[in-house]
Write a structure and sequence with these properties.
CATH architecture of the largest domain: Distorted Sandwich
CATH superfamily of the largest domain: Deoxyuridine triphosphatase (dUTPase)
Shape: globular
CATH topology of the largest domain: Deoxyuridine 5'-Triphosphate Nucleotidohydrolase, Chain A
Helix content: 10-25%
Number of domains: 2
CATH class of the largest domain: Mainly Beta
Order of helices and strands: EHEEHEEEEHEEEEEHEEEEHEEEEEEEEE
Number of strands: 25
Oligomer: single chain
């Protein structure tokens, strides 16, 4: 079988073959190159994050480390600074040639909700080996805002692949020359992917980003445009220096300098950045679906919104500094629906943009 990411139609076929099982799907749950995962009816607050380890089910570790169980059948508040584990509604019975990887959804990352998928016997987060059969669990840790969630809430997403679909440097250069993957005069492309840099010049008003406030109200993860921006965020403006000091353990929403394009026959992912170039983390939510930034899907000029957190020490970001890298993978086939106009996606053609939970600033 050829190597590549499974598209929307092929994900639906996994359900038909009972290689994926779940209660009836939401109408928009299958995305062009991924499946949204839904929370189950119970969540456990645990003492600390954990991995189950070889031949050990997650349920066995929960029996040891759970502090208490919370009913999600209606809704519940998940507090900042706490770690929760919830069994997901979707279960897998993958064939031997299909593996999977997971990432937070874009809105999850923009709320600073740290999530990681765990499989039974896992030795690493967010990775599901080929041939895995069993349940999936989600670790949830709200970092900045307390959240309201319930059974059916969708905080994470999963991609399925066969073989090694990752493009090498030469393939990436050729794809960029054919389709302009990033809007840069001299793109920085190496074996680690295409470099993304930070925009600290700002928009017409000089707005360059937002910093999350502490001690706010809750955010309901299923409610759109329900929160006032200034109740949760401090706007940051360019004061003429084109740099920004990141305060330790504060959360920032910033934007890439480059517009990003993911052609319909490919998918992309923002990978963790090398800690040797700075003590900060960028982008919890790494999946970019086929059609992101694609002009025919209404996305020309789409930039990457970056979730940024400094660690341990203050760190100065300069305009144009490299903050992350995009890697591209082949799709097995072009999706039936593209990110953007086909799906009324929330973040197509975006610039600097908060998550869908906040009312637009007038």
């Amino acid at each position: 079988m050829a190597s590549g990411i499974l598209n929307d139609r092929q994900i639906a076929e996994l359900f038909d073959k009972e290689q994926l099982s779940a209660p009836p799907l939401d109408a928009d749950q299958i995305q062009p190159a991924s499946l949204d995962l839904r929370l189950g009816p119970k969540v456990w607050r645990v003492r600390a994050s954990f991995l189950p380890g070889p031949d050990t089910p997650v349920a066995e570790k929960l029996a040891r480390f759970a502090l208490h169980e919370i009913d999600l059948s209606k809704s519940a508040v998940l507090e900042t600074g706490c770690v929760y584990i919830v069994q997901l509604q979707e279960e897998l019975a993958l064939p031997e040639d299909i593996s999977a990887s997971a990432n937070p959804k874009s809105s999850t990352g923009r709320l600073d909700i740290f999530t990681r998928v765990i499989a039974d016997g896992a030795q690493q987060f967010d990775m599901v080996p080929a041939g895995y059969s069993g349940p999936l669990y989600l670790e949830i840790s709200p970092r900045t805002f307390p959240i309201v969630a319930r059974s059916g809430s969708r905080l994470s997403q999963i991609r399925f692949r066969t073989g090694d679909a990752l493009l090498g440097r030469e393939e990436l250069v050729a794809l960029h020359e054919a389709h302009t993957l990033v809007a840069a005069e001299q793109p920085n492309i190496d074996t680690r992917g295409i470099a993304m840099s930070i925009d600290l010049t700002g928009d017409e008003s000089g707005l360059i980003g937002y910093r999350g406030k502490r001690h706010t109200g809750v955010v309901d993860v299923d409610e759109k445009a329900a929160c006032e921006v200034l109740d949760y965020w401090e706007p940051i403006h360019n004061r003429g220096s084109n740099d920004l000091v990141l305060d330790p353990d504060e959360f920032y929403i910033l934007v890439s300098r480059e517009a990003v394009h993911v052609p319909p026959e490919h998918a992309a992912e923002m990978v963790p950045f090398d800690p040797l170039v700075g003590e900060f983390r960028v982008h919890y939510a790494g999946f970019f679906d086929p059609g992101f930034g694609h002009a025919a899907a209404g996305g020309k000029g789409s930039r990457a919104v970056l979730e940024v957190r400094s660690h341990e020490v203050p760190f100065i970001l300069e305009h144009g500094q490299i903050v992350g890298r995009l890697v591209y993978e082949r799709m097995l086939e072009r999706p039936d629906c593209l990110y953007g106009s086909d799906l009324k996606s929330n973040y197509q053609a975006q610039g600097l943009k908060l998550s869908k939970h906040f009312r637009p600033v007038s």
